[in-house]
Here is the input.
Amino acid sequence: MADQSSKDQLGRILLKHRSISQSDLDAFLAQQRSAPDRRLASIVAASGKVSRLDLLRALSEQHGMPGVDLDQIGFPLDNLKHIPEDIAQKHRILPMRVTEDRLFLAMADPGDRRILDEIEFVTGRQVVAYVALEGELEALIATVYRLADSGETEYRAPNAPKGDRAPIQSIQPISGSQPASPFPNSRAESAPS
Here is the structure.
């Protein structure tokens, strides 16, 4: 869970972009204090006062890495073998793309260095993290692992671009400019095309 300063930072970002008012932020922070297990972004998303893409842009800015619009992705379900379902659910992570040396993950909390390091160690691949909206990510994790269990081989979101290479081309950084990675090993970067 994020500490108070990062919750406030998200609030300041939303205020800066005029996505919410100060009274909205005060109300969201009060809700978060009464439900400490809920992330501020989840409370804001549930309120409906901020569009999902504006919230994703704010999270991207907060974490200093690209966001991923989960409505725009597609990928082979074979990717799921790199992250067991229980780990994906517990840490809210989803392997969107796998290359020989990299694992591209959608994450609700890309600032969790411990899980990033652990995944890199276990998979032997460099992790490239993208921030995603927590509620959408939780729902998608349940969906794709269920599809894989039923024998499906590919997932394509309803708004994913058409074509043979939709899995990687559909990973769209949300932030206007690519922020510098907060990690020394450049864990956040643009996906190759």
Remarks:
- The beta strands are 74-76, 93-98, 102-107, 126-131, 154-156.
- The longest strand covers residues 93-98.
